[in-house]
Design a protein that fits this description.
Layout: E1 2-7, E2 11-18, E3 21-29, H1 36-49, E4 59-64, H2 70-81, E5 86-87, E6 97-98, H3 108-120, E7 126-131, E8 134-140, E9 145-153, H4 155-165, H5 185-213, E10 219-223, E11 238-239, H6 243-254
Parallel strand pairs: 1-4, 4-5, 6-9, 7-10, 10-11
Antiparallel strand pairs: 1-2, 2-3, 7-8, 8-9
Helix pairs in contact: 1-2, 3-6
């Protein structure tokens, strides 16, 4: 079995693959200050509590946007799982043609999304929207060229900015309001967060589509923890919650003959 770890700014999204099948996944708070022992003990405990023998984990694959925590995570894999992890980073095989001006700047999670989108939706122009700490939009051509994209603050980050930068606005639950017209302060914030994000993305995805592909058709894929909020808004055609994990597993497989 393969343990795949997507380390974000706010969460670790982890999944266990048996062959091609994702048999278990979980999310945990991401903390760059944790030691290798803390991480190793935590990962083994979560697996055991869910009926997975840690000894059955033969490989570990990591994509991370938090470089400061990567050393501890590598050490945890070696000490607690008995092998060095595969890390999705510049120089490994991806199956993509990276057309970014500086390919090393592209986040590993964005590359993993692009790998999975290319595998799941072959020979199609693709746009991937990932709702994480930041909301990212990535553009992949039908020839598996990663063309670039856009990044904007995610819903939670936008809410925290409002809370931190104002005297009277507090944190609210992130949800899909029934209407845009908020009649309380909390409802007004929820409306601004949700509908502001929705219509910003509608316009942004349209612009990306036109700039990259003109009138050619495009397949839009939604992923990330908050994608479900927008599932009924015609923002994307397919929701694939485990897109990063799938791409990370595929990247691991591509690099086994190195």
């Amino acid at each position: 079995m393969i343990l795949c770890l997507d380390v974000g700014n706010s969460q670790i999204h982890a999944g266990v693959f048996k062959g091609d099948a994702l048999v278990y996944q979980f999310r945990a708070k991401s903390s760059a200050g944790e030691s290798s022992d803390q991480l190793g003990v935590f990962l083994r405990a979560v697996l055991r509590e869910n009926g997975i023998d840690p000894a059955a984990i033969r490989h570990t694959a990591i994509c991370s946007v938090v470089p400061t925590g990567l050393y501890s995570l590598r050490a945890a894999c070696i000490k607690y799982f008995g092998h060095p992890p595969f890390v999705l980073q510049p120089g490994v095989k991806t199956g993509l043609k990276i057309r970014y001006k500086n390919p090393q700047e592209v986040g590993a999670d964005r590359i993993a999304n692009a790998i999975a989108a290319s595998w799941l939706f072959p020979e199609q122009n693709r746009l991937v929207v990932d709702f994480g700490t930041a909301t990212t939009c990535d553009v992949i051509s039908d020839r598996d060229e990663y063309l670039g994209g856009a990044i904007l603050p995610g819903l939670k980050l936008s809410m925290e900015a409002l809370q931190a930068g104002t005297a009277k606005l507090s944190a609210v639950e992130i949800l899909k309001p029934e209407q845009a017209l908020g009649q309380t302060t909390a409802a007004s914030i929820q409306s601004g967060l949700y509908f502001g994000h929705l219509f910003a993305l509608k316009g942004l995805l349209h612009r990306l589509h036109q700039e990259a592909f003109g009138q050619q058709p495009v397949t839009i894929i939604g992923t990330g923890g908050l994608a479900r909020l927008f599932a009924d808004d015609n923002l994307f055609e397919h929701e694939v919650p485990d897109l990063v994990l799938t791409g990370l597993r595929l990247a691991f497989v591509k690099n086994q003959n190195l």
